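Help needed: design a sequence for this.
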């Protein structure tokens, strides 16, 4: 729009910009142009499973949890809420970008990938279908104005965190066409995407940010222009990390010529990008036409948001005000999504005599009027968020939901962590009333200020929660405090590495590598770079976590053993998982619980699959949920109680053994025999696996044709109906998600759906 509020097109704006103004638009943080009435603009608001990083917002299940619904309509509805809340934040602060950096469409090729929590499915076509639905919700239904403009991440062949900015993915043509491109192609052809972000890595020796032929092909699929926005610091990485170019001027020119339009580089220091582009122009490495092409695509992205239409914010066709966050309908959908993502993996026949005879004789689930419920493990009464989560307005834990659903039951809770005091030289670590300091003092060990609950996440990584403040110890600054509500941050500040020393343990802050030391004189607990100066603590166990679990489970009708991962520990952006096993401390909790209560349900709350063949064989039932956000507890209990039919199906293979998944860095899945399509290993639970409580009959289910051209069959090709069971005692209508498999004409290329 012009300074007087009249509408302009992207072409109009481009024609009115000076060369310097156009160059400035190539950075993520584009400046305002007051003479044209253009406000400053920033690419990228995070919205992976709801609005993130901007305060209170509805937090939906992680993408694998959403994908477990196998329901595009649900994904679209979640996208609608996410984009509505982005618009609401934009109404509060116009600097909030309406270009969202979501969804992630990298397939879940390997379960060790640290960012597996961000993708939808192991199958590229399922990923495409669900991502398209989410993008439809993000885009909205208005014919010309988009509620938000989605960005697909991360193009291409990205699925490892170790050395992610310098590794090269070997990708032969078949693997490229069958396993990588379809997830991007579907949403682009549907016309619901406005931008794509390349990934940090190289493919076949070439950085993705200069892959001109692939970016051109990607753009050819869409019915409108597609902006390409770089990943953070990736342009500089072409020189600094990958050393693919001798200097930044050449690297910037190559990226621009290849099709990168917006440079997310050097944080807000747009002047660095401006200098590099200007130098490339002056050296003849690029032309002003190259700059114009990129700027036009960025302006067309902005045009789709309605920014150039004139009339100001009040002219938006959506009528979304600043209060359209955490609405009752959003809470209802969050609970629906949490329940739809619960997957019953195993539900064995049981014949148990319990103190209240409340357990049915045929199967472990659903629960039937239990009188005594033990809920144990680190997620018994705890909800966590991940790096790309918003701040939930509330959080319903599993224990809270059980008490709500079964108000007359005795719900016993034990998280499995030891309650300890840390002693050094006759002094105990003591937390101040406000948690801002921890000192070594001579006090009574019975005082709450000296007590910590230790949660052991495996591989000697622990968190310590103060009983005085209810907060975690954090090493975010030199002085150690007990002020953190949860583990979080780009570098987690609340985790510590336990290191055995003579006479006790030393604690190393995992994020910084610094060591905990009690100062002489002040007795203040601080961090220290020299490991030789680390204080050695004697650990005094005041309450055994194992004993608490045993007591909670003894005599219970059912034990829900809630195990899993914290999304900031042992697997996340920048860190792949060390293995597929449940951490040893959690296996110990399971062992204690199942021996104390034969009716033990392994209740996994995690970002990714586990190799739990032994534990699954021992369990009366096995249930999985992703970290499902603010309604985790309700979602789980709605299914465990039988109030909702379990309809969740796995979006990713759960292998029986860690080694079955193959090499994390091998992207030639066809030759390597990886993923469900090509891997001959028998899975523990396969893609699409999930049990219900009702009996479902598929009568005369047929495919519309026995031969199809790629892409393969869609979710709608196998018609089926359900019936309510009779003799088996069930009374709930089941929802069936029938699957079909397509094979190559030679019978050797499975592509199961």
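Sure. Designed sequence:
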């Amino acid at each position: 729009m012009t300074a007087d509020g009249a509408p302009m097109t992207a072409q109009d704006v481009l024609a009115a910009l000076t060369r310097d103004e156009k160059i400035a638009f190539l950075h993520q943080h584009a400046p305002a142009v007051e003479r044209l009435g253009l406000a400053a603009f920033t690419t990228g608001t995070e919205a992976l499973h709801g609005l993130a990083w901007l305060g209170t917002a509805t937090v939906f299940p992680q993408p694998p949890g959403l994908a477990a619904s196998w329901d595009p309509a649900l994904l679209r509805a979640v996208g609608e809420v996410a984009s509505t809340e982005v618009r609401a934040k934009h109404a509060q602060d116009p600097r909030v970008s309406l270009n969202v950096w979501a969804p992630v469409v990298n397939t879940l090729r390997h379960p060790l990938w640290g960012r597996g929590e961000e993708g939808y499915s192991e199958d590229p076509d399922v990923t495409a279908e669900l991502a398209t639905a989410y993008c439809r919700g993000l885009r909205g239904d208005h014919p010309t104005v988009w509620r938000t403009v989605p960005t697909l991440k991360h193009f291409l062949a990205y699925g490892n965190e170790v050395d992610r900015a310098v590794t090269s993915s070997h990708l032969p043509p078949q693997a490229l066409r069958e396993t990588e491109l379809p997830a991007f192609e579907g949403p682009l052809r549907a016309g619901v995407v406005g931008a794509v972000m390349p990934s940090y890595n190289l493919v076949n020796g070439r950085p993705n940010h200069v892959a001109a032929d692939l970016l051109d092909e990607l753009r050819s699929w869409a019915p409108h222009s597609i902006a390409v926005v770089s990943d953070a610091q990736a342009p500089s990485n072409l020189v600094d990390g990958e050393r693919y170019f001798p200097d930044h001027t050449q690297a910037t020119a190559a990226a621009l010529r290849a099709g990168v339009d917006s440079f997310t580089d050097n944080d807000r220091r747009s002047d660095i990008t401006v200098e590099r582009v200007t130098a490339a122009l002056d050296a003849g490495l690029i032309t002003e036409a190259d700059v114009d092409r990129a700027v036009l695509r960025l302006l067309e992205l902005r045009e789709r948001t309605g920014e150039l239409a004139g009339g100001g914010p009040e002219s938006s066709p959506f009528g979304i005000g600043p209060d359209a966050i955490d609405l009752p309908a959003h809470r209802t959908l969050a609970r629906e999504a949490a329940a739809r993502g619960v997957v019953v993996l195993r539900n064995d026949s049981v014949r148990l005599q319990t103190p209240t005879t409340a357990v049915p004789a045929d199967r472990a689930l659903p629960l039937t009027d239990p009188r005594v419920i033990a809920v144990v493990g680190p997620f018994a009464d705890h909800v966590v968020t991940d790096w790309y989560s918003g701040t939930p307005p509330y959080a319903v834990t599993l224990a809270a939901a059980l008490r709500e659903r079964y108000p007359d039951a005795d719900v016993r809770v034990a998280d499995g962590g030891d309650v300890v005091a840390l002693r050094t030289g006759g002094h105990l670590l003591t937390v101040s009333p406000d948690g801002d300091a921890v000192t070594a003092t001579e006090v009574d060990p019975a005082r709450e200020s000296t007590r910590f609950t230790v949660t052991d996440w495996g591989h000697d990584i622990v968190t310590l929660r103060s009983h005085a403040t209810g907060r975690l110890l954090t090493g975010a600054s030199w002085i150690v405090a007990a002020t953190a509500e949860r583990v979080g941050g780009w570098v987690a500040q609340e985790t510590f590495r336990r290191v055995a020393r003579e006479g006790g343990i030393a604690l190393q802050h995992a994020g910084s590598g610094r060591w905990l030391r009690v100062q002489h004189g002040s007795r203040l607990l601080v961090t220290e770079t020299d490991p030789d100066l680390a204080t050695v603590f004697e650990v005094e166990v005041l309450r055994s976590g194992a004993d608490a679990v045993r007591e909670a489970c003894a005599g219970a009708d059912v034990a829900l053993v809630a195990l899993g991962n914290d999304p900031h520990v042992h697997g996340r952006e920048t860190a792949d998982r060390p293995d597929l096993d449940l951490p040893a401390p959690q296996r110990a909790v399971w062992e204690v619980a199942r021996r104390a209560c034969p009716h033990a349900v392994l209740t996994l709350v995690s970002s990714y699959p586990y190799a739990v063949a032994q534990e699954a064989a021992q369990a009366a039932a096995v249930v999985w949920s992703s970290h499902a956000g603010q309604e985790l507890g309700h979602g789980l209990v709605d299914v465990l109680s039988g109030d909702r039919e379990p309809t969740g199906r796995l979006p990713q293979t759960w292998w029986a053994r860690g080694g079955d998944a193959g090499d994390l860095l091998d992207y030639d899945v066809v030759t390597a025999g990886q993923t469900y399509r090509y891997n001959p290993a028998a899975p523990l639970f396969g893609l699409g696996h999930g049990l219900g409580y009702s009996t479902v009959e598929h009568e005369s289910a047929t495919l519309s044709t026995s031969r199809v051209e790629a892409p393969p069959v869609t979710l709608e090709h196998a018609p089926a109906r359900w019936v309510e069971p009779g003799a088996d005692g069930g009374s709930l209508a089941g929802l069936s998600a029938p699957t079909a498999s397509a094979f190559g004409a030679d019978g050797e290329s499975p592509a199961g759906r």
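DSSP finds 19 helices and 32 strands in the chain.
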